[in-house]
Design a protein that fits this description.
By secondary structure, the protein is an alpha+beta fold. It is built from four helices and 26 strands.
C-alpha cells in the first residue's frame, strides 16, 4: 500500500476528499489536479480537505512532501531531550523514508539483476516519435506505419492493374496496326502491279512513236525528191516533216523515262510494304512482353497485399488459424495483440500511459468492477484502503472481482500501471569493462578531449591498426602477443 499519497477520480461536483495518511504539518500536504499543482484548498479537519472546484473525472492526487532539506528539530542544549522532539525527529525520518519508497515504486529504476532500467511494467506517456533505430516506438507511430504500408500496397496493386490494362490495350492496338499494315502492304503490291502495267503500256507507246517517226521521215524524203522542181513548196514540206520527226522522238524519250519511274515506284512500294509488316510484328511482340510483365507485377503486388493483409487484422474477434508473429488489433478493447505460437498476447501494455485509474460507486452486493489494466500491475482501494491481492481477482485485464461484495455507496478505486521494456543499455560495470579509462598506467592508447597536457599509457596491451595520423609520448612498450599495424594511409609518431 502507499504510505504518502492517495489518488481519486472526482465525481460530478465533488470537492471534499479524505487525507488517509499521517503528516507532521498541514503545509507538507500537497494537491495535484490532473497532474497540475493546486494550492486552492482548505482544511475541513485533520483528515479532510476541500477544493474550490472540480469537475467530473478530474484526477485528484493528494500526497505528502516532508521537508527533506530542513530538520524540524534542532537539539541545542545537551540533556534537554523531550519525548516530543524525539518523536518529531524520528517521524520526519520515517516519513522521508516512506515518501522515497513510494516514489521508487512509481518511478523508473535500475534493476542490477539484469542490468537494465525497469518501469515495473508501467506505460510511459508523452513519448516523442522515434528517430534512431534503437529508439522506443509509440503505439500511434507503429499503427501509422502499418496503415501507411497497407495503403502503399493497395496503391501499388491498383497501379499494377492499371498498367496491365494499358498493356493489354496496347497489345490490341498493335495487332490492329499489324493487320492495317498487312492491308497497306497488299495495296502497295497492287499499286506496284498497276505501275508495272503502266510501265509496259508506256514502253509500247514509245515503240509506236518511234515507228511512226521513222515512217514520217521516209514520207518526207519521198516528197522532197518528187517536189524538187517546186523548190519553195518542197523546202517547206521538208521542214515540217523534220519538225514532226523531232517531236515524235522527244515523245518516245519521255515515255521511256515514265516507264523507268513507274518501275522504281513499284519496287519502293513492295519494299515499304514488307517493312511495315516487319515493324508491326515487332511491335506486337513488345506489347505482348509488356503485358506479361505487367500481369506478373500485378500478381506479385496482389500476393504481397494478401500476405500483409493476412498478417495484420483489425477486428473485434480473434482471427482464425493464425501464424506465429501475426498482429491483431482488437477493436473491442483497442489493444494490439501478437500471436506467440499458442495464444494471442498483448503486444504492449493495455494501459495507455504510465497509469490508468477508474473509480466506481458500488451498488448493493456488487463484486465486479470494470477497469483496464495489465494483470499483476494494479492496486485496488476500497473506501481509500488498499486491498491485498488475495481480496480480489484481476486476471483478464478488463474487470476486477472482489472476494467480498461491496456495500451500497462504497467507493472502489482501481489504479492500473502501464508496462514497458527499455532498449539495451550499458551498465557501469559493462562500460568499465568495454572502455579504457583516461590516464590508465597500462592498456590501449587512451583517447580524451584536447587539453594543455596530454598523457597516454606507456604499455599497449591490445592489437590495433592505424589507418590515419597518430602520435604518442614515448617510451612505448608493446605487450607480448600484441601487434601494431600501420595501414597504407596511416602514420604513427612517437615523441
Amino acid at each position: 500500500m502507499a504510505y504518502s499519497y492517495v489518488a481519486y477520480i472526482a465525481s460530478s461536483g465533488q470537492t471534499q476528499f479524505v487525507v488517509p495518511f499521517a503528516y507532521i504539518a498541514q503545509s507538507h500536504v500537497k494537491v495535484k489536479i490532473n497532474n497540475v499543482v493546486n494550492t486552492s484548498f482548505v482544511w475541513l479537519s485533520n483528515t479532510q480537505i476541500q477544493l474550490t472546484a472540480s469537475t467530473a473525472n478530474d484526477r485528484v492526487f493528494i500526497y505528502r512532501e516532508t521537508s527533506p532539506d530542513q530538520r524540524l528539530v534542532d537539539f541545542v542544549i545537551p540533556g534537554q531531550l523531550t519525548e516530543e522532539d524525539l518523536d518529531t525527529a524520528f517521524t520526519q525520518t520515517q516519513f522521508l523514508s516512506q515518501e522515497a519508497l513510494d516514489n521508487s515504486v512509481l518511478g523508473i529504476f535500475e534493476d542490477p539483476a539484469i542490468g537494465t532500467f525497469s518501469a515495473v511494467n508501467k506505460v510511459i506517456s508523452n513519448v516523442a516519435n522515434p528517430v534512431s533505430a534503437q529508439d522506443a516506438a509509440t503505439k500511434n507511430w507503429a499503427e501509422t506505419g502499418l496503415t501507411s504500408q497497407l495503403a502503399l500496397g493497395t496503391a501499388q496493386a491498383v497501379i499494377a492493374n492499371t498498367k496491365a490494362s494499358e498493356a493489354a490495350v496496347s497489345a490490341t492496338n498493335s495487332e490492329t496496326s499489324k493487320t492495317a499494315s498487312g492491308v497497306s502492304a497488299t495495296a502497295s503490291a497492287t499499286s506496284a502491279a498497276e505501275s508495272a502495267a503502266s510501265a509496259s503500256t508506256a514502253t509500247t507507246q514509245a515503240a509506236l512513236s518511234t515507228t511512226n517517226g521513222a515512217a514520217q521521215v521516209t514520207l518526207a524524203t519521198a516528197q522532197a525528191v518528187i517536189a524538187t522542181a517546186q523548190a519553195a513548196a518542197v523546202i517547206a514540206a521538208d521542214s515540217n516533216a523534220s519538225a514532226s520527226a523531232t517531236a515524235s522522238a522527244a515523245s518516245a524519250t519521255e515515255s521511256a523515262a515514265s516507264a523507268a519511274t513507274a518501275t522504281t515506284q513499284a519496287g519502293l512500294a513492295t519494299t515499304n510494304g514488307a517493312a511495315q509488316v516487319t515493324l508491326a510484328t515487332a511491335q506486337k511482340t513488345i506489347a505482348t512482353t509488356k503485358a506479361s510483365e505487367a500481369s506478373t507485377s500485378a500478381s506479385n503486388a496482389a500476393s504481397s497485399l494478401a500476405s500483409f493483409t493476412g498478417q495484420y487484422v483489425s477486428q473485434s474477434g480473434a482471427p482464425s488459424s493464425p501464424s506465429t508473429g501475426d498482429l491483431w488489433f482488437d477493436t473491442s478493447s483497442s489493444t494490439m495483440k501478437v500471436y506467440n505460437g499458442s495464444a494471442w498476447a498483448n503486444a504492449g501494455s493495455s494501459v495507455n500511459g504510465v497509469e490508468n485509474s477508474v473509480q466506481h460507486t458500488a451498488t448493493a452486493g456488487q463484486t465486479s468492477f470494470a477497469a483496464t489494466y495489465d494483470a499483476g500491475y494494479l492496486q485496488v482501494f476500497l473506501n481509500g484502503i488498499r486491498l491485498d491481492a488475495a481480496d480480489y481477482t484481476a486476471t483478464n485485464g478488463t474487470a476486477v472481482v472482489l472476494a467480498v461484495a461491496a456495500a451500497v455507496g462504497d467507493t472502489v478505486f482501481i489504479q492500473g500501471f502501464g508496462t514497458f521494456v527499455l532498449a539495451d543499455v550499458y551498465t557501469k560495470t559493462a562500460s568499465d569493462a568495454r572502455f579504457k579509462p583516461i590516464g590508465a598506467s597500462s592498456g590501449g592508447p587512451s583517447l580524451g578531449l584536447n587539453s594543455v597536457i596530454r598523457t597516454n599509457a606507456a604499455v599497449i596491451s591490445e592489437s590495433i591498426t592505424i589507418n590515419t595520423n597518430g602520435m604518442s609520448a614515448g617510451p612505448i612498450t608493446i605487450a607480448d602477443g600484441h601487434t601494431i599495424t600501420i595501414g597504407n594511409s596511416g602514420n604513427w609518431s612517437i615523441v
